[in-house]
Known about the structure:
- There is one protein chain.
- The protein is mainly beta.
- 11% of the residues lie in helices and 52% in strands.
Amino acid sequence: MNNNTRLSLLFTLFFSTSFYTAAAQKNFVKGFIVLNSGDTLQGLISDEEWKINPKFIYFKSTPDAAATAYSPVNTSMFRFENGNWYVSYTGKVDGTSLQVSQLTYNPKPVYLTDTLFLRVLVAGAADLYYARDSRERDHFFIRKAGDTITELQYNKYLISDYAGTHTRANEGFRIQLQNLVKDCPSLAENFMGMPIAYKRDDFVSLVKSYNSCDGKSNTYAEEKEKWVFEFSVIAGINSSKMRFTGSEDSYLAFTEMERSLGYAAGIAFNAIIPRNNQQWSVSNKLFLKNYEAFGNTTSIDYDPEQAIYLDYLYLKLATTFRYTALKGLWRPFIGVGITNAYAIKEENTRSYSNGSVTELFDGARRYEFGWIAEAGFAVKNFSITGMLESSNGMSPYSVVGTKFSTWYAMIGYTF
């Protein structure tokens, strides 16, 4: 099995394992549910940090209890301990898309009746809610004390004129927000000059300002989730095998290089993507990796046998898109990505039987590019990672190339 086949199998394993695990796994955390009857259930709720707002949730009274599904039909709200807050909603939701490829010439919103949980962004004299639908459209809703929940109006449509087809937008949300703040003089006087766009940050800022008007205060404001960054030191070994590729007429075509066993050590930086239960991240490893090996060419009519010696030290950056299967003590992970490297030390020679020594490659390439797959697990602050890399080596020629296949075994410590 060649290296490309191995990488293809790892790619397949990565995606099938990731999506299967993501679908099957539930992360139960402390929280409570308020039923329509007014009763409150304390226990554990499955927190999936939904990209698309949920239409049902799973609840356990204890860790060992069976999970029960609840929907907005039989609950009024639920909330995670030290986490997000959701309220039940049944009502109108704009069913139009904001993607240009799906726009029509109808300038009016098309409302559908839907039932779902809305995420609370701000609560106080006025509440602001958020939802995201299956078309990846963001929806925002407001409710003033004593009123019902209403969606902030915004839709796009197409128009055609002599210059072609263009998009236009109905920004009904501006009138809705102007009506909202009319009893707050400091906001009402300056509202027309406010550059408010249809986006979360602008709405949150305005509603929080309104809730603070005349001595009032916000009773809740969701903290915007940020990327989480992990820093580690890593060290281990690498086992590299290089082969020559290209024309069989070359004296290098049948050269067998020995496998090199060397070191790999450096630092790692893992950036965890928000709202995914700390499962998806972008991992970067910057490390030194050495390669030293001998080989012998095959003697042919016009070229006697030669001894090949390669001695390289690479500074390598490996960037992978990583999926961590579990939260808890044991956290297995798998990822795929690319590598970029530069040879900060290079020696490539060929020695003849008469004792003369010349360079194997005239102007050897120092930059190296590759593909990499990783798998491993973390326990507390420690991690063990295995990686397989395929890279293009140092040959500057098109007729004869070089190709590395490298295995890594590394131990890491996260601060």
